[in-house]
Structure formats: C-alpha cells, structure tokens
Amino acid sequence: MLRRILLPTILLILGFGFWMSPDFKTISAGVAIFLFGMLSLEEGFRAFTGGALERLLRHTTSSTYHSLGFGIISTTIMQSSSLVSVITISFLSAGLITLAAGIGIIFGANLGTTTGAWLVAGFGLKVNIASYAMPMLVFGVIMMFQPSKQLKGAGYILSGLGFLFLGIHYMKEGFDAFSGNIDLSQFSVSGYPGLFLFALIGIIATVVMQSSHATLVLIITALSVNQISYENALALAIGSNVGTTITAIIGAMSANEAGKRLASAHLIFNLVTGIIAIALIYQLMEFIDWFAKQVDIADDDYSLKLAVFHTIFNLIGVLVMLPFIGKLVTTLERVIPEKVPEVDQPKYLSDLSADYPGTAVEALRNETIRIFDAALRVIINGLGFRKEDVMSDADIEQVASSQSRIHQLDIDAVYERRIKGIYSAIIAFISTTTFSRHDEHSARIHWLRDASMNIVESVKDTKHLQKNLVRYVGPGNKDMKAAYNQIRMKIAYIIREIDDLRNAEGGVIDMTSLEALKQIVNEDREKFNNSLSDLIGRGAISPIMGSSLMNDSGYAINIMSSLIQAAETLYVARDSDLTQTVHDILDDYHDLDNVNTKNPVPQDETLNTEHADGLEHSAR
Amino acid sequence: MGLNTLLDKLGDMLEPEASKKKNYRKKLKKLLKDLKHKENKLKEKLASTEDELKRNRLEKELEIVHTQRKKGIKVLDETKPDYSDQSPDEPPE
User: Fold this and answer.
1) Contact assessment for residue A532 and residue A553, using Cβ atoms and an 8 Å cutoff
2) pLDDT in tens, A36-66
3) Would you give the DSSP letter of residue A123?
4) Residue B33 maps to a domain
5) For chain A, which terminal residue's Cβ has fewer other Cβ atoms within 10 angstroms, N or C?
6) Threshold 0.80, pTM exceeds
7) Do A136 and A220 share a structural domain?
8) Which of A1, A65, A567, A121 shows the shortest CA–CA distance to A323?
C-alpha cells in the first residue's frame, strides 16, 4: 500500500514545488539530467566490459598505488575531481574495477584536484572541461546511432559526460538565486566554533554552487576584502572539500550498491581529512607560513597559500587513510550489503541424500514438484489468470471474457526468483549422482531430469506466447482476441485437469487420464488449425496475424504437452499403474514364442496408441 | 504338496514354452478383469459428472480403456492353446 502511494506522492510534491519555485524546478531538472548522464555513462562503459578498457583499468589499478596514481593523473588532466569520482562510480557499477581500486582512485582524485589551485594560482591557467559539454552531446548522439558496439558505447560515454555537465550547469543556475545571498562577514566567529561554522558554510556553499573551485574563488575574494579571517578561510576550504562529495553522492543515487559504497568512501575520506585538518589547523597554518617563506610566496598571496594548504591537508588525509583501505572496504561491504534477489532454494536436496539412491530419487521428485508448482503459477499468471481462477471450479470462459486486457508479467524475473535456483540445484545434483548399478534409479533420475527440462521449457514457451497474448487480448481485432482467449483457456483447462487429477487420488495420476489429455491436446491442435484457415480465408485476420497465431498455438501445444509429460513422470505410479501394466503385458506378448498368431498385434503398436497419434508416446 | 501341483511343476519343467504362455494368460486375464473394473468405474464417474470438459476427458479415458480391453481379449484369443497343449485345469475358452 505504502509503496503504491509513494511514487504518486513524490511526483505530486515535486509538481507542487515546481509550481511554487522556478529555481527549484531548475535545480531538480539539473539533478535529473545529471542522473541521466550517469546512466548513459554506465551504459557506455558496459559496452567496453571485457575489452581493452577493462584490461587498461585492470593494469592501471592493479595495486593501491597504481589506483592512487591513476586518480591523481586523471584528475589533473580533467581538472575535475567530481567528474573523476562519478566516472569511477560508473566503472564500479559496470563491474570494471574493484571497490578497493575505486577508493584508491578517489583518494588520488582528491590529491589531483589540488593541482587546479596551483594552476590557477601559479599560472593563471584555467582548464574548463565543461566547455566541451555541448560538442560531447552532439558527437555522442551521432555515435550512438552507429551499429558498431564500440562506437555506440563511446557515444553513450560522450553523451553521458555531456549530460553530466549540462546537469551541473542547471543545478548551478538554480542555485544562483541563493549564492548571491551569501555574506560571509555576518558569520565571523573566532576559535574552534568559528572553524566548524565556516567548514559548514564551506560545505553548504560548495553544495549550492556545485563547484569547489567556485568556493575557492569566493574565499579568496572574501579574504582580500577582509570579510573573513585567514583561519576561517582555511576552514571554508576544508568545508568545500567535504561539500564537493555531493556530486558523487548524487551520482551514486542511480548506481548500484558498489557505486554507493564508493560514494560513501569518498564522503568518509573527505570528512576524516576535514576533521584532521580542523584539529591541526594552527599547526598547519604555521607550517604553510614556513613553507611560503621557503618558496618565496608573499604573505598576502592567499591564492597560493590556499593552494599549499589544500594540497597538504589532502596529502595528510591520503597518508592517514591509505593503510585503512582494506578495513574501509570490509566495513562498507558490511554496512551497504549487496541486494541479493530473493531466490527460492532447494529444500530436499543435500549432499547426504545423493548417497542413497532411493532417497535421492525421492528428494529429486519432491524438488521437481516444487518447480512444477512454481511453473504452473507462472504460466497461469502469464496467461492473465489468477491461481484461484484456474485451480477451482470457476468458469474460466467467463473470467477470460470479463477481462478487457491482461497485464504483462515479467516471466524472466519470476523464473529467476522461483525456478532457476531449484532447477540449477536439480541439474547439479543429478550430475553428482552415479548409480550405475542401480538401473531402476538411474532411469528414474533420467526421467526426472527430463521432467524438469519440460517444466522449464513450458515456462519459456509461456514467455514467448505472452508477447502476442498481451497485445491481442485487448481492444482491437475481436477475432484475434477470441482466438487468443481460446488458446489461454485451453492451457488453463489442461492445468486445471492435471491439478484436479493429482489432488483426487492422493498425489497419484492414472496414466490413462494423461493419455486422454494428450488426445484432447491433439484434437485442439486440429480444431485450431481449421479455424485459423477459416479466419484467414474470410479475411477476418491478416496473414501476418495468422502467422502469429500459428506460432503461438504451437507454443500453447508445447506448453500443454510439456506439462502433461512432466505430470506423467511426477505423478504416475509406474509400479501399479494399469496402463503401464498393459504396455508391459504387450511387450511380453511379443516375447512369447510359438504364439498362435491369427492376427498378430504389430510390434510397434501398444494397446492404446490408435487414439494418441501425433504426441510422443509415453510408454517407457 | 498335492499330486496335481507336483504334476504341474513337472509339466512346467518339461515344457517351458507352454508354461510361459500359461503364466502370461493368467496375468492377462487378471489385467482384463482390472480393466473391466476400471471401465465400470469410469462409466459411473461419467454418469455423475456434469462439467462438459471433464466429461470429454472421461469419455476419452473410457474409450482408451475399452480399446485396451478389446485388444487384450484379442491377444487372449490369439494365445489360446490347442486342446492338445491344454493343461487339465484350464477349461476351453
């Protein structure tokens, strides 16, 4: 219930917010574009999984120092630690690098970003990669249309980068209204409370302006007009270093658990570094003054002094945190666990039961029944029915005709969750059993394996059938709707019969009943083919619709036949079944010598095959 | 052990083929009895079932069992021993 109303509520609140504040709208659009860029980037990097990029990354991040160096160099080149951190999150989300390597890169990026201050302060050089955003978008989209996987991947990466910058641009635009109101002089407080306050202001200002560089400019300006003290300026720089992680945190919103872990590592690193820097601020100030004198930096050259400070405190952070990378990885993996989808596991199979043929067969049968039940459920839902519609006396025709449309079921997801785990365990279990001396058990295990394969096939066929079923059991061609309703009702009927039969005799089904069901399926196939020809002949449906119907009726026949076949293995008691005895006795008849054969029964004919033509005969 | 049983055993040992056939016919007769019983049960079920789809299945089952029984009778007929082969306890069919 809560989940159902959550999304509409969020959308309503956002809608109200957009109506109230255009700035809020711009900021939200910026975040949305940014996240879209992240998705695109991740998609792009995924195209290179297993290729040259992965090899290059594996090589460049093979040790902590390599990752650190990679982070420093890439950030120095790109002049944006935020960009490097979001790309690293994409690498991690796409599974190209490990978390430890990702943390190494982030640490390196923190050091690399300090070169920006040096470049600005020392050479007046400002690399603005954001100016390439528009060309990136254009080139990216053109490349996305190319058939080559690599070009397409590169296109996604380029347009992803373009969208990242565009998103940041909109966020900045939206926040402009707020940044104009920042008057630092009103917060002037001395001592540690002042340091913490200014660090907080630094965080907020960087979050608002989406750029630690912009905050640095603001700090230098404020310092030059004596709005703030030197120590408060340093606290602002520390805060801006923490605030810059916001980009990575927003980026991690669209990433998987691995990406979230990395964003957390980024935040932890910058927080710890910030706390150390605040704690040692006076010592750092003395050291910077001393260092400035050594390299001839003027006392009032705050830009360069800030650059020195920035580098030193990040260096301290890296030196302090580097030995704890392993610990950080384990902690983050524990705190942010990977969401493992709830997958049904085998209940009856164990290493012990493989040692005893009788137990093994029974365990396998029980497990196969579990996937049979799960498959019946998937098929029923895939056909647009509910379990209670089919496994009851309800009028299926009425249920079908009352539905104006049916909803698509994610059969792959349900298969993964409910069947695959058990099916894989069954196959693995069978491969461990070696009952060469127990022929009877071997045969049963062989049949059970076939039964589970039949069950899985029926689910796959339902998935194929569902595509057109959803399409045609809706408003549109009435004849197509009627034909598809017929198909799904037939399958539902066979499922109901199998379920009734197994429940009626305490879990044992008479083989004759299943033979009768096979005959019904064959008759249905013939009737269906005739009505199909009629529909096409009188122009009620197009030949293309006809071919779809033809294929889908094939799937339906396969589903029904597979289920009947599986039910035969699972529920027919071969030792006491009458039809089985009939088959055995006929086999014995052919073994008799000197029989008075007035009208001999042919060798390949069994006692009940004359009505079961078409379907594979069940006698084993 | 009675004299008849002893004679039977001796006959089995001397004529293994005839003995095999005799046993086969015994099994077949038992099967035909079971099939007859099943056919009757199905007829009863059919009479008490109203659901059209279930009736369809039951009719088909009945047809299968009936065919099986008819063929069984045919096989029994074909394995009928010549009077000269017949053991004293087996009356002519």
Assistant:
1) yes
2) 887 887 788 777 766 666 777 778 888 888 8
3) I
4) yes
5) N
6) no
7) yes
8) A65
Flag whether A616 is in a domain: no
At A117-150, the pLDDT tens digits run 676 666 655 556 567 788 889 999 999 998 888 8
Looking at the structure of chain B, the number of domains it has is 1
Q: From CA A218, how far away is CA A81, in angstroms rounded?
A: 19
Contact A179, A215 (CB under 8 A): no
A324 with A416, same domain: the answer is: no
Quote the crossing angle between the two packed helices A257-279 and A99-112, to the nearest 10°: 40
Chain A contact present for B78, CB below 8 A: yes
Alpha-carbon distances, residue A575 vs A381, A510, A565, A579 (angstroms): 35, 12, 18, 10
CA distance B12 to chain A (A): 15
Record: contact A599-B24, CB cut-off 8 A? no
Residue B39 sits at the chain A interface (C-beta within 8 Å): no
Residue range(s) defining the domain that contains residue B70: 23-78
Under 8 Å between Cβ of A380 and A387: yes
Same domain, yes or no, for A87 and A208? yes
For tokens 């990433």, what's the residue?
Answer: A255
> Which residues neighbour B5 within 8 Å (Cβ) at sequence distance 6 or greater?
none
- Give the Cα separation of A430 and A450 in Å (integer): 11
User: ipTM of this model?
Assistant: 0.73
User: What is the nearest CA distance from B39 to chain A, expressed in angstroms?
Assistant: 11
Domain residue limits at A296: 24-335
Length of chain A: 620
d(CA A335, CA A611): 64
CA distance A143 to A158: 9
DSSP state of A148: S
